[in-house]
Give the backbone structure.
Amino acid sequence: MKLMIKAPAKINLTLDVLHKRPDGYHEVEMIMTTVDLADRLELESLDQDEIQIISHNRFVPDDSRNLAYQAAKLLKERHGIKKGVAIQIDKIIPVAAGLAGGSSDAAAALKGLNELWKLGLSLDELAELGAEIGSDVSFCVYGGTALATGRGEKIQHLPAPPNCWVVLAKPTIGVSTGEVYKNLKLDRMKRPNTKAMIEAIYENDYDKMCANVGNVLESVTLSTYPEVALIKEQMIRFGADTVLMSGSGPTVFGLIRHDSRMHRVYNCLRGFCDQVYAVRMLGDGNPVD
C-alpha cells in the first residue's frame, strides 16, 4: 500500500527568545504559519522490518539523521510495529533554510504512517510524539497558524493571517541554528511585539501584521552572513511591504499584497539569488493529501 502526503514549509511572523532554560533549550515565543511550498512524501509499506529513506537530493540524509526516519522509528517502537516502510522524499523546500523542511517531513511521516499502519492516533497525540523529535515538529503536525511557546512544542492555534503573497529567497549558504543561539545576546535584543501580531491576525489587519513582524535571531545571522543582509536590503528596495528572516535563517521572506509588485520583487531577486519562490500562506491546517 502507498500513500502520498505533503509537508509544507513554515515562516516565522515573530520569533522571540525569552531566556535559556536549565535543560539547555531556549524558552521561545513565536508565531508561525505554513506556506504553499511543500515537500512531497510517498510512503510504501514493506513486509521486511526496516526503514528506507529515498531521496535524489544529496543534502537529505538517508539514515537515522533524517527526521522522517526518526518519526517512523518512534512510531514503530511505541506501537510494536513489525513491518517496515519506504519513505521517498521529493525535496522542494530548501535544506537548512529556517523553513522547518526536515521537521515538516517528520510531521508528514507521523501523519502518513498513522494512516498507513491504522494506528488511530489523534493529531494531539502525534504532536506530542513530534515534540520528542524536534522543536518545530509539533507545529508542523497541525500546520496552519499558531503561537508556539516552551521550546516550540506548546501550540496555541490562531486564525489564518491576512492573505498576501510571500516571496522567499535563500542564499547559497547554510546557517547553524546552534551557533546563532550561542551568539545571541539576550540583554541587547529588540523584541517583537507578539501580542500586537496576534491582534493583527484576529483583526485581519494586513498593515498591522506588516508593522509587527520581528525575529530576535535576525541580528545575529545578519551580522555574521552579509549575504542575508543584502537580500533583505534588496527585497525592501524592490518594494516588499515588509521583510524578515525566517527562523535562524538564512531564508528571507517579503510579504506583498499586490500581484504586480510580487512579480517585480520575484523577478528582481532572481537576478542574483538562485532559490526564489513566490507562494501563498496556507493559513489553516494542512490536510493529509
Q: What stands out?
A: The first strand starts at residue 2 and ends at 20. The first helix runs from residue 67 to 79.
